[in-house]
Amino acid sequence: MRAVCWYGSNDVRTETVPEPKILNPRDAIVKVTSSTICGSDLHIYDGYIPTMQKGDIIGHEFMGEVVDIGSEVKLLKMGDRVVVSSIIGCGQCHYCQRQKWSLCDNTNPNGWIQDKLFGFGTAGIFGYSHAFGGYAGAFAEYIRVPFADFGAAQVPDELPDEKVLPISDAFPTGFMGAEMCNIQRGDTVAVWGCGPVGLFAMSSAYMLGAERVIGIDRFPERLQMARDFAQAETINYEEVDAGEALREMTGGRGADACIDAVGLEAHGIGLEGIYDQAKQTVRLETDRPHVLRQMILACRKGGILSIMGVYGGFVDKIPIGAFMNKALTFRMGQMHGQKYIPRLLGYVLEGKIDPSRVFTHRLSLEEAKQGFEIFKNKKDNCIKVLLKP
Predict the structure, then answer these.
(1) What are the beta bridge partners of residue 2?
(2) What's this model's pTM, rounded to 2 decimal places?
(3) Which of 57, 37, 290 is closest to 168 using CA atoms?
(4) pLDDT (0 to 100) of residue 284
(5) Does the pLDDT of residue 160 top 90, yes or no?
(6) Given a cut of 90, is residue 116 above it in pLDDT?
(7) Phi and psi of 101, rounded to 5°?
(8) Secondary structure element (H or E) that encloses residue 302, with its range
(9) Is 351 left (phi over 0), alpha (psi -120 to 50) or beta?
């Protein structure tokens, strides 16, 4: 089969590789009908995610058709059309039983790698390095889905792939980011990053009761999408200081909750941006925390900071004094896909949201390298790239 394989920073290749097989009776084999490049995939593409190995198949946001099942798969059958959570959960451990799927105890055979960085191992993730299990990813014609009864959700035939695909990862990530804000009626929610996750976080904040949502970015096409898709107010942080603008827009109080939908490659400006870029380049700092610093200062006293942008290691110059003395609450984590997918699928079926609007580019699997370059460099007003095998 054809699949997109990683070979180093900015080096991905579509190659012929062996097809996956059932390895465990709880496995299913899914024929991928659509996948999409996630902002988290760019961290891999740019070489910032450790424990990648040459030839690894990448990609984690996908859907398709069940073409084979193990003997212990009970809820799926051959021919089922499914959307699959990017997070792999066993469904039985302490964390899965409490809907904390991304913390699963049993799906990451390489949890020992994370022990050194995180203290404990977390769940496996498709196509996201050996620290997260070393699972083959979704930029392929076929994929093995472990614990398939708990990760693959059946999809009605009347919904086209484009409306369902973001429910695999980007939509639940944004929704979880908004849910962690504990939104109350009348709240103002600020979202850093108007990419797909940020857009879904903005829409979700409104669905959860926010009165105002403010999107922060620097690309005009993304700010326009935030206004059109999410009905958000917007701030271009290259034109004004985002923190000062938020203070003015909220009558001097600050946002009630702030969501980081950017992560470890945050773009800073001025000396701070140069500082983080330089330290990350020589690996004295693994992640660029520009957004984290800005959120801590911009959030109102007693507010909530929700972090859905991916971070992988260590950051520098975090204003912990402001965080403590303002009595802020930090909430964060990889998304618990299995918890949210049924609810979000219901929203799409009810017509409350059309996730397909975030797709601006549709390419074949053979054009994956081109898709990465378009997405990374924000060419041709790109918001999100859909890949078809």
Answers:
(1) 16
(2) 0.97
(3) 37
(4) 82
(5) yes
(6) no
(7) -60, -35
(8) strand 299-307
(9) left
C-alpha 37/C-alpha 19 separation (Å) is 21
Helix residue ranges, H only, the chain? 39-45, 94-97, 111-118, 148-151, 161-164, 170-179, 196-207, 220-230, 242-249, 270-281, 290-298, 320-325, 337-349, 368-376
Least confident among 23-32, 186-195, 271-280, 346-355: 271-280
pLDDT for 272 equals 86
Helix 270-281 / helix 290-298 crossing angle, nearest 10 deg: 140
Phi, psi of 5 (to 5 degrees): -115, 145
pLDDT (0 to 100) of residue 379: 95
Distance (Å, rounded) from C-alpha 192 to C-alpha 237? 10
151 neighbors 89 (Cβ within 8 angstroms): yes
Measured CA to CA, the distance from residue 161 to residue 256 in angstroms comes to 35
DSSP letters, 17-63, are: -PPP---STT-EEEEEEEEE--HHHHHHHTT-STT--TTEE----EE
What is the SS3 assignment for 323?
Answer: helix
Largest CA distance in the chain: 61
Residue pair 154/148 in contact (Cβ under 8 Å)? The answer is: no
Specify whether the CB–CB gap between 180 and 201 falls below 8 A. no
**Closest listed residue to residue 36, CA positions, set 343, 260, 372, 345:** 372
| Contact partners, residue 332, CB within 8 Å, separation at least 6 | 180, 306, 307, 308
Burial class from Cβ neighbours inside 10 Å (0-12, 13-18, 19+) for residue 313 reads middle
Closest CA to 332 of 95, 73, 29, 100: 100
d(CA 261, CA 244): 20
Q: Distance between CA atoms of 178 and 187, rounded to whole angstroms?
A: 12
The pLDDT value recorded for residue 84 is 98
CB 28 within 8 A of CB 73: yes
- In the numeric block, the tokens 């380049």 are attached to 281
Beta strands 62-69; 87-88: pairing state: unpaired
Task: Give the model's pLDDT for residue 279.
Answer: 87
Bridge partners for 3 per DSSP: 15, 140
The C-alpha atoms of residue 257 and residue 109 are separated, in whole angstroms, by: 36
Asked if residue 95 lies in contact with residue 174, where contact means CB atoms within 8 angstroms, the answer is no
